[in-house]
Prior knowledge:
It is built from seven helices and five strands, in the order H-E-H-E-H-E-H-E-H-E-H-H. With 158 residues, the protein is α/β, with parallel strands linked by helices. The strands form two sheets. Strands 3-4-5 form a three-stranded parallel sheet, with helices on one face. Helix 2 links the parallel strand 1 (13-16) and strand 2 (59-62). Helix 4 (92-105) packs parallel to helix 5 (122-135). The longest helix is centred in the middle third of the chain and has 14 residues, at 92-105. The protein is globular, with a radius of gyration of 16 Å. The two termini are 19 Å apart.
Amino acid sequence: MRAASKYKVPVFFSTVVYDNEKQASVFRQRLPALNILQRGSHWVNIHSSFSQYVNAHNVIEKHHPSAFFGTSLASQLLGLNIDTLIITGLTTSGCVRATCVDALQHNFMCIVVPEACGDRNPDAHDMSLHDMHAKYGQVLPLSEVLKYLNQNSVKVLK
Length: 158
């Protein structure tokens, strides 16, 4: 986050929020634990350690794994002339992977940072990173992403 802020790279957060039982009902039937993600619940809040970066325009509320499905994310990114995404988050095998696949389908280049992703299943995490790198984007260590941002800071700041 500090590097994104330093280089003025736009940051978007996503959170799963349900207002009623009809939203993503099949997904929620498959994973009943999602039912705690009700509006007003602390479970849908962006972690307080990121509060200084959160504003009304960069939080994407979603009902499914992808940050693109049924949201305005693609149009917001296009409006900012963004062509490449650095994807982080939870869970690697769910939301991160779905967002990476959909980003590619919206013609965005994707970089996934493994140190900034996590999954409840280490094997699923590793396999998802392998799959994303093979098909949908690049999986690059944080050190390489930070090096790229530092070397291209003039381009990023335009």
